[in-house]
Specification:
Elements lengths: L1 E3 L6 E3 L1 E8 L5 H8 L12 E8 L8 E8 L21 E8 L3 H29 L1 H10 L21 E6 L1 H4 L5 H17 L24 H4 L6 H4 L7 H12 L5 H4 L14 H31 L1
C-alpha cells in the first residue's frame, strides 16, 4: 500500500497483483478484458504480458490499483514465471490458473507443470524474504492455513499453496453445453475482483457435478468428493502415496496425457503474420541469408582442413 497526495494525507492506495497462467488459448485474455470492462477482441499472448486496472471502493476515495500479468504459451515458457513474483509484490500476489476443459488430455500435465514451477518460484522468494524480514515470511506461511478450519477432516493430508490460488475451468460451454455462459463469466469476474480489489467476495458454493462447480478453498473435503470412478479391486491395484496421486492415476487412465513435447509451443513467433513489420522482416531475411552463407563457407573450410590433414 502507498500514500496518496502530495502532503501525505494518510489516504492509502491498495495495490495487488494477479498472475494468469494456464492452457494455451484457454481464455485468459478474455477473462482479463471482461474484468477490466474492455470491449475489445482478445489477441494471442506471445510471452508475458502486463496491464493494469483501477477501481475505487467508494465515493471520493482514491482508486486502488490491480496489476494483471499473463503468461502465454501454456507450459512452454515456464522460465518467465519468476519475473512478476518478487519479494515486494508477494504479500499481495494471487495466481489464477485457467484450464481448458475441452482438452482433457492436456489438462492434468498443464496444471501440474505450471503449479510446480510457480510454487518453486514462490518458495524461493519466501526464503529470500525470510532472510531480510523473518516476521513477514512467518506471517505468509501462517496465512496459507487461514482458509482451512482447524478441525477440517483432511487437515493432515493438505499441503496448501503458498499464496492465494484460483483454478478456473474454461470453455465449459464446449465441455458440457450450457446457455449460461454469460452468468458464468459474471461469477468469474466477481472472483477476480475479489483478488484484485478486495471486493465482491462470493459466499456461494456449488458441488453438483452436473453443474459448473464453484467451491471456495476449505469448503470441500475428500469424503464429500468421494472415491475415483473405478471399481474397488482396480483402485487397489494402483499404488499411490496420497489421494491427489490416486486421482491423477485414475484421470490419466481415462485421459492419457500427450507427450510433454506436444505441450510446448514450437512455432517461431518471428513467422507469425500478426507481428509483421516490413523493415524488421527485410533485415531478418538479409541476416538469415548471411547466416546461411556463413554456415556454408564454414562447412567448406572445415572440410578443407580435414582433407589437408
Amino acid at each position: 500500500r502507498r500514500s496518496s497526495g502530495s502532503e501525505g494525507d494518510g489516504v492509502e492506495i491498495g495495490e495487488k497483483s494477479v498472475f494468469f497462467i494456464g492452457s494455451k488459448n484457454g481464455g485468459k485474455t478474455t477473462i482479463i478484458l471482461r474484468c477490466l470492462d474492455r470491449d475489445e477482441p482478445p489477441k494471442p499472448t506471445l510471452a508475458l504480458e502486463y496491464t493494469y486496472g483501477r477501481r475505487a471502493k467508494g465515493h471520493n476515495t482514491p482508486k486502488d490499483i490491480a496489476h494483471f500479468w499473463e503468461l502465454g504459451g501454456g507450459t512452454s515458457l515456464l522460465d518467465l514465471i519468476s519475473i512478476p513474483i518478487t519479494s515486494d509484490t508477494l504479500r499481495t500476489f494471487s495466481i489464477v490458473l485457467v484450464l481448458d476443459l475441452s482438452k482433457p488430455n492436456d489438462l492434468w500435465p498443464t496444471m501440474e507443470n505450471l503449479l510446480q514451477a510457480t510454487k518453486l518460484n514462490v518458495d524461493k522468494v519466501i526464503m529470500k524474504l525470510g532472510k531480510k524480514n523473518s516476521k513477514a515470511a512467518s506471517e505468509m506461511r501462517q496465512k496459507m492455513w487461514s482458509n482451512m478450519q482447524k478441525d477440517h477432516p483432511d487437515r493432515e493430508l493438505i499441503d496448501p499453496f503458498p499464496i492465494p490460488l484460483v483454478i478456473i475451468g474454461s470453455k465449459y460451454d464446449i465441455f458440457q453445453f450450457t446457455s449460461k455462459s454469460e452468468a458464468l463469466l459474471l461469477k468469474i469476474r466477481g472472483v477476480i475482483n475479489q483478488l484484485a480489489f478486495g471486493i465482491d467476495k462470493s459466499k456461494s458454493i456449488c458441488v453438483d457435478q452436473n453443474k459448473p462447480l464453484f467451491i471456495t478453498a476449505g469448503l470441500d473435503s475428500l469424503s464429500q468428493i468421494g472415491s475415483p470412478p473405478l471399481p474397488d479391486n482396480d483402485i487397489g491395484k494402483l499404488h499411490a502415496r496420497s489421494p491427489m496421486e490416486l486421482w491423477k492415476k485414475v484421470y490419466e487412465k481415462l485421459f492419457p496425457p500427450k507427450s510433454i513435447n506436444t505441450l510446448k509451443d514450437v512455432r517461431d513467433p518471428a513467422q507469425d503474420p500478426q507481428y509483421a513489420e516490413s523493415e524488421v522482416d527485410e533485415m531478418r531475411i538479409q541476416k538469415d541469408q548471411e547466416l546461411e552463407q556463413y554456415k556454408r563457407s564454414s562447412s567448406k573450410s572445415w572440410k578443407q582442413i580435414e582433407l589437408d590433414s
